[in-house]
Amino acid sequence: MSSTYLIGLSLTVRMWAIRSRAIAGVAVQSLTMMNLSPMITPELGSPSAV
């Protein structure tokens, strides 16, 4: 086990944690927006608006 390998591993884990947290944040934000604005979601979700 070299120190370089451990540093690279910790950086990879940190990047993955930040990325997954960002993805989760975006998902929660979009769900909150959909719940807060019922007037906008039918326009985006319905095929008649296209």
Unreliable spans are none
Please give the largest β-sheet. none
Amount of beta strand: under 5%
- Helicity range of the residues? over 70%
- Per the principal axes of the C-alpha atoms, what is the gross shape? rod-shaped
What order do the helices and strands follow? HH
Mean model confidence by pLDDT: 80
Number of helices: 2
Observed structural traits:
2 helices; rod-shaped
Structure description:
This protein has 50 residues and is an all-alpha fold. It has a domain at 19-50. 78% of the residues lie in helices and 0% in strands. The chain is built from two helices and no strands. The chain has helices at residues 3-36, 41-45. The model has no long low-confidence stretch (mean pLDDT 80).
Summarize the structure.
The protein is mainly alpha-helical. The protein is 78% helix and 0% strand.
Per-chain topology:
Elements: H1 3-36, H2 41-45
